[in-house]
Specification:
Number of helices: 11
Shape: globular
Distance between the termini: 63 Å
Number of domains: 3
Oligomer: single chain
Structural class: alpha/beta
Number of strands: 25
Strand order of the largest sheet: 3-2-1-7-18
CATH superfamily of the largest domain: FAD/NAD(P)-binding domain
Strand content: 25-35%
């Protein structure tokens, strides 16, 4: 079979690349090759355990791209011959003109004795593996999660809803350290603790022990009994096919791309978790594995496959995160204060707090706490963190847009806004504005 564009990987990055490519180049034949017959919505996986109660309620839909005329082939790519522009699958040979690698990532397993024991799991992106973990969870009482990042925190909160005793072990001094400063990570710890999750920070795991099945998690200063252990210690890019093609890998071991998502090999593109990302501010390489980042890159790649569109380029990744724990929502965009100071920036911090409705007695109102980080020299916004209710999800996106458009504290302090009692904070104490005013007063 021959296609103009073949995309390897059927996650969000692959689907959006196909959709955008088909809309921009309607005469091209496009196929997605994906291993799993039923894909999962990546960000929804933690919520299978306590909220959705079934992986069947977290299926990644493909009907939209199929309706556009994209072929979806359930198969595994065994090898690639880019000189002949062909892929070998278990069912035959696929020829292509343009190839997009959207091969994603897989759990990173720490080098610990005992990780091979029964009852030790990772948070996989494959339905059959998640179902296996879920069935084992139902029979377990004491669950230990190693790693207090986004996945560890969200999975802990969900498993706790099953009536299990849950412990998180995090080696850093606060939760979600890649995105948040300590004061915001501690809010997550407090909320989890209120609901019965034990959180141990600044602790290192030495090994897992047990006879055939895991029984204990051994720390550097003690041990924890465990019926089941979840390793939430990050993910690594899948780059096997990329290596076969000979594309350049970056410093992090992920695929290097330019601002149009082109790899070092002509007619080969890459998007999503398998790609090395460049920080919007420091220009340093890193691994930023978010579906939102993946779909942004997919839109760039899909538009630029056959014709470069200058306005659709990847100028670096901001890193925009959000999560929610029992009514406490946390969001972050750009650099946190600790990270940016370590990079040598001279910064000024602005803070604000208040209800996200007006008056604050409106039934669904929640307290918003905001922290904005600005360059002391130029006043440009470098990052922001927010805690509060559901409004956090859109507020953090607004912060991300302000960073991307290089707005300053002065511009945010004079931002023209629309407000309504049932929808927003009061115009007199709108958090984006008042946090910027706070920073300006210190400049």
């Amino acid at each position: 079979m021959k296609y103009d564009v073949v995309i390897v990987g059927g996650g969000p990055a692959g689907l959006i690349t196909a959709s955008i490519a088909k809309k921009n180049y309607q005469d091209k034949n496009i196929a997605i090759v994906k291993r799993e017959p039923v894909g999962m919505i990546p960000c929804g996986i933690p919520y299978i355990f306590g909220t959705l109660k079934s992986s069947d309620k977290n299926i990644l839909p493909t009907k939209g791209v199929e309706n556009l005329g994209v072929d979806i082939i359930t198969d595994e790519v065994l090898s690639v011959d880019h000189e002949k522009k062909s892929l070998k699958t278990s069912q035959g040979i696929l020829e292509y003109e343009k190839l997009v690698l959207a091969t994603g990532s897989e759990p990173s397993i720490p080098k610990l004795n005992g990780v091979e024991l029964e009852g030790v799991y990772t948070i996989s992106k494959y339905k059959e593996e998640i179902d296996k973990l879920y069935e084992d969870l139902k029979k377990s009482e004491k669950v230990v999660i190693i790693g207090g990042g986004f996945i560890g925190v969200e999975v802990a909160d969900e498993i706790r809803k099953l009536g299990k005793r849950v412990t998180i072990v995090e080696m850093m001094d606060h939760l979600i350290p890649t995105a948040f400063d300590k004061e915001f990570g501690d809010l997550a710890k407090e909320k989890l603790s209120e609901h019965g999750v034990e959180v141990l920070t600044s602790k290192r795991v030495k090994e897992l022990s047990g006879y055939k099945r895991v029984e204990k998690v051994v720390l550097d200063d003690g041990e924890i009994n465990a019926d089941l252990v979840i390793l939430s210690t990050g993910y690594k890019p899948r780059v096997k096919l990329a290596k076969e093609i000979g594309v350049k890998l970056g410093e992090t071991g992920a695929i290097w791309t330019d601002e149009y998502m082109r790899t070092s090999v002509p007619d080969v593109y890459a998007v999503g978790d398998c790609v090395e990302h460049i920080c919007f501010f420091t220009r340093k390489p890193g691994r930023l594995m978010l579906a939102s980042t993946a779909t942004f890159e997919a839109r760039v790649a899909g538009a630029n496959l056959y014709k470069l569109r200058v306005l659709r380029t990847n100028k670096g990744n901001l890193g925009i995160f959000s999560t929610s724990i029992e009514g406490l929502s946390l969001g972050a965009a750009g650099c946190n204060e600790k990270m940016i100071r370590e990079e040598g920036f001279d910064v000024v911090v602005g803070k604000a707090s208040g209800p996200d409705r007006h008056p604050g007695s409106i039934p669904d109102a929640s307290k918003i706490t905001m922290k904005l980080v600005f360059s002391a020299e130029s006043g440009h916004l470098l990052g922001g963190q927010v805690a509060g209710g559901k409004s956090v999800g859109e507020i953090v996106n607004a912060i991300g847009m302000a960073i991307q458009k290089e707005m300053t504290a002065a511009e945010l302090a004079t931002l023209q806004i629309g407000t309504h009692p049932l929808l927003t904070a009061a115009p007199t104490i709108y958090p984006l504005v008042t946090a910027a005013e706070d920073a300006l007063s210190k400049m």
